[in-house]
Amino acid sequence: MSTPIVEFKDFGFKYKSQSAPTLHDINLTICKGEKVLILGPSGSGKSTLANCINGLNPFSYDGVITGSCKVAGMETKDASIFALSKVVGTVLQDSDAQFVGLSVGEDIAFALENQSMPRKEMLPKVEWAAGVVGMSDFLMHVPYELSGGQKQKVALAGVLHGDVDLLIFDEPLASLDPRMGMTAVELIDRMHKEQNKTVVIVEHRLEDVLYRSVDRIVLMNEGRIVYDGVPDELLASDLLTRYGIREPLYIKAMKYAGCELTPDQNLSDIEGMDLSPFEDKLKQQQLVQLEKYVPKVGEEILKVQNVSFAYGKDPVLKNISFSVRRGEKVAFVGKNGAGKSTMAKLICGIIRPREGQVLINGTDYMKYSIKEIGEKIGYVMQNPNQMLVKDIIRDELELAMLLRGKSRQEIDEAVKKTLKMCGLYPMRNWPVSAVSYGQKKRVTIASILVLQPEIIILDEPTAGQDYRHYTEIMEFLDELNREYGITIVFITHDMHLAIQYTDRAIVFSEGELVADDSVFRVLSNDQVITRANLKQTSLYTLAMRLGIEPEAYIEHFINYERMVRAHGQQASD
Amino acid sequence: MKKILKTLLGVWNTKTVVAIAIGAALFGVLMNFGGIPIFTNTNLTTAMIIPVIVGSMFGPVPAFISCAVGNIIADLIGGWGFWFDWSVGNGVLGFIVGLLPLYGAKINEGIFKPIHAVIYAVTCVVGNAFAFGVITPLLTMAFYGGEESITFLQAIAGGIANTIILVVVGIPILFALARRNARSTNLKMEEEKE
Amino acid sequence: MDNRLLINLIPGETFLHKLTGKTKVRTFLILMVYIIMSFDLRLIMPLSILSIMGLVSLKPQWKIIKFFFIIIGLMNVLNIVLFWLADPNIGTMWCGGTTTVLFRLTERLFLSAETLWYLCVRFIKMMTSFMVSLVFILAITPSELAAGLYSIKVPYKICTIFSIAFRYIPDIGRDFQNIKISLQTRGVELDPKKSSIGKRLKQNILILVPLITTSFDRVGNISNAMDLRGYGRGRTRTYYSEHEELKADKVFKALYIILILFCVYWIITQNIMAETLSMWYPFV
Ligand SMILES: Nc1ncnc2c1ncn2[C@@H]1O[C@H](COP(=O)(O)OP(=O)(O)OP(=O)(O)O)[C@@H](O)[C@H]1O
Ligand SMILES: Nc1ncnc2c1ncn2[C@@H]1O[C@H](COP(=O)(O)OP(=O)(O)OP(=O)(O)O)[C@@H](O)[C@H]1O
Ligand SMILES: [Mg+2]
Ligand SMILES: [Mg+2]
Fold it and tell me: Where are the alpha helices (DSSP H) in A450-525?
């Protein structure tokens, strides 16, 4: 075939601080012009592998290499990170942290500045790269004027110019809203096709990446490659579920319906695949009677009435009204900057409405202080590091109770109960630094739960988390909701999550409330989807192709899924 | 000797540059928004804690730079005009309180013992006395001329405010940070004992 | 936070804004030397007037500027009052040894014409120094500052510190807000009016610890992003933000070179070779 650009031979890597190697027996060849997706559960070594290609391992993270890894003919352990940076361009996950320039133009030019390129030569290159990603009009913008998606584009432009042949994307979609994610996938695809770049993507969101075709998928587990081949074969197999990776929704639906999937059916292309062999089964599945899921909800607990708010002159929230009942699970969804987090802060009383009212249990909340509202409504922010102030897990939970002057006995009881509820009891005396990100997140949730709020608001609870952690957290919250009747509000970009774990979606766009309805109805409403930068899931496409009413189809799927989760797969037969 | 020099200078890779920059940014922000003014030119500010942290991670020279640059940044974002005499004084103090790794306190590895706290408190007093009792007044007189006793008084007030912050606020913060960074080794799952 | 910074991140449109970073930094440094080197009102006054003109030409937001003028003005007034209290006769040694008492409060406290002159000159000098700094701050962007410092042979790793610091200040501000919010909702009283100094220090610790950890947590990510794009590979670098020199830059260059020569001459003849303290005093 064509020339290889990356060649791993019996490669292994061990971080200096680890006692065992993180990568073992890696044999992998990537050829010029290929587009490869690397999949795998959290901690399986995907980023480590990517960093071995771009030279961060071992230049930035100390470690020992065994075997050989050649990039464009250079043995990486002998080459310098600078030499590699001429061949490999890397876009990291954190689009905010990697934006090092003070303006878009400067950030795109950063690599050129480091090469001491005269400004005259730099300008056309920067303009060209900005044009490719569609950011030409933003060259003079500062980073905090940009949305997450725009920053991601800038990061892309920053590695485009110059002669890098190989582009590595480490979780490029993590912080983007659904539409932005789609745009990013399209952009990467164009880069691949038009500039003839070799592309390596590391990503959890398989369904989103498959929106544009990939040549090959490498599946990793515990530092080893367990699958290396075409996407269709992987989708037909049961490897994904076995290694804890989220299957695309339409594949899941087909498997629920008992379809026999084989690798030669063009499975990775929902639009193009031939559905005729499955049509009967899929339609039959639709006839399975499921008990209708009726959420247990109580009286109205929170009411937002004609609320408007502005930080400065421009209104951020305009005339919003909705209400939440006890025991409900509600999702706030919508595009970046639509005002979701602002709404959450408003509900918590951190900021107060300019116009309109917020009622908690029927009382106007203006007479409560932030502290008092905090006892009724708990707010868990996205970044756990911003919330954790103590160094021992137990102290963190006690903090708020001590401040509220609760008695020792009361505190001990509540803390113990909450720690057990959250599965943190055995680690109660550990320092916060010794637990993983997902566990930290749970500590923050616990530190709010211990106050026994009636409502808990979670701002992007799953962003930057892999499927396993994410399921863990969501199942835990679901349980809280079921057992203790806690009302839960999620703010999220992940439609999958909204489908799986909430009953109702409140959709925001440009400060307005554009829809307030059950999740499946929102997701089958074209108008709302376009206005709020959402995206149809593949279920929608599947239903359309089958000629089934999408709303009913998605609802059926959700109910079925709920049943499977509750009773296990066997109940379906 | 060479080793001491190396500890003083720190390793100058990209990480160090970025850490100094973040330190300077924090310094600038805290200087402007995290202080309680008590005397002319003098703030009871928590910013001084930053060079201690940079020093503990990267050594005194990076601490010096992050402090001096932080001061200039504070002036740039706050619009107070430039006071180079104070910037240099703060830098010198940053250098002295940033000596932590020299006596074995490594905050980012979780090492900060009571003995370190004592040595640290002493360096704070000595550092302030030197920076604001000698360096700043000398520079002020050289730059702007003036009345010795007043210049001296101002500097001493600044020095005392700094010492208070560095000791009273600094030591608890250092302990807290060290505890937070301690990658405790013998962690055990403790099941309930009843 | 973002709009509370005085320095601009994006270059403005006026004449001074459009100079290169190199010109701005060099002119500023030489002007600082110029101010510091003398107590001569004949030197300070013209610069004082020029800096006011410069300030006006930058079209700043006067509402914010006014606040700083009042604070700095008050600080300097307090300063000279302290000077006077410490030594009412301070002007005598500067103005040729005479003491012309204008009025007397007590035996020790009196105001002489010489002291009044000295204190006024000192006040104008400090205010001019402040105004020149302010013009500089309002005219430059952090990237230009980095480029300007680089042009006077400051190692580029130091220059980077400036630009990276400014890049992440808004992020730090946002972290700070969020930490504060989360503490408040959990019941920490952070209203400065409602707590004593001791309590406020304690709360500062509560906020500072997570603020420091989250801020320094970023370091690894940022430095990786920089390494991957070849930061530190060469001895030199160029700056995207530093445009080619325009005509105005050349004029400024000529001016600051003349000024350097003048300063050297002045420092040698008036500061180094002078035997006693003295200043220009028109009423001898
Ligand atoms: N800098 C490091 N030093 C020591 N160990 C590390 C380092 N980075 C990663 N590891 C370890 O290597 C293993 C693989 O990590 P890696 O980041 O490659 O996983 P990943 O597959 O990218 O996971 P994720 O999906 O969560 O990003 C983990 O067990 C982790 O603890
Ligand atoms: N503290 C603040 N001061 C001024 N403007 C703000 C502030 N916080 C948010 N905004 C602005 O208000 C608007 C809504 O922001 P908000 O954070 O509520 O959006 P969001 O829906 O949560 O977006 P995302 O999905 O990106 O988190 C944005 O335009 C934002 O720039
Ligand atoms: Mg990873
Ligand atoms: Mg938000």
Answer: 467-484, 495-501, 519-522
